[in-house]
Design goal:
By secondary structure, the chain is of the alpha+beta class. The chain has one domain: Dynein light chain 2a, cytoplasmic (Beta-Lactamase). Helices cover 35% and strands 25% of the residues. The chain is built from three helices and five strands, in the order H-E-E-H-E-E-E-H. It is globular.
């Protein structure tokens, strides 16, 4: 049974990295995650699980733009390659992760356990990387 703060709730994705819709559905079950999407590098939506009031196209364009910037600027800033970033505001946090097929973006409440979400994102990113090796 999951506690109110998400402790005890499974955070690691249990689906294959090839089934991106199922992977996203697993990620949004993490406590306090409002929704998410997976977008291609050009901003095309691959999978979306967002509240109805969130504009999918605008968020997918933002995810692709931020993801590409982080991929390009990370090595130049000597911070290694881009794997994941989070952006926090008073009412919530956005998590963004890079994969071989594009970017995973999660929206979370301000009460969310950031480490739990980072852990779930790392697992999802690893699953996609394993499934989409070149």
């Amino acid at each position: 049974m999951a506690a109110a703060n998400g402790v005890g709730q499974s955070a690691a994705p249990t689906t294959s990295g090839r089934d991106l819709r199922a992977l996203l559905r697993d990620l949004i079950t993490v406590a306090h995650v409002r929704g998410g999407l997976i977008v291609a590098p050009d901003g095309l939506v691959i999978a979306s699980e967002l509240p109805s009031h969130v504009p999918v196209e605008a968020l997918s364009a933002l995810a692709a733009t931020l993801g590409r910037e982080l991929e390009v600027r990370g090595p130049r800033l000597r911070r290694g390659s881009f794997l994941m970033a989070n952006f926090a505001a008073g009412d919530g946090t956005v998590f963004l992760g890079g994969t071989p097929v594009g970017f995973i973006l999660l929206l979370a409440d301000s009460e969310a356990n950031r480490e739990r979400i980072r852990h779930a994102m790392r697992g999802a990113i690893d699953a996609v990387r394993q499934a989409w090796k070149r």
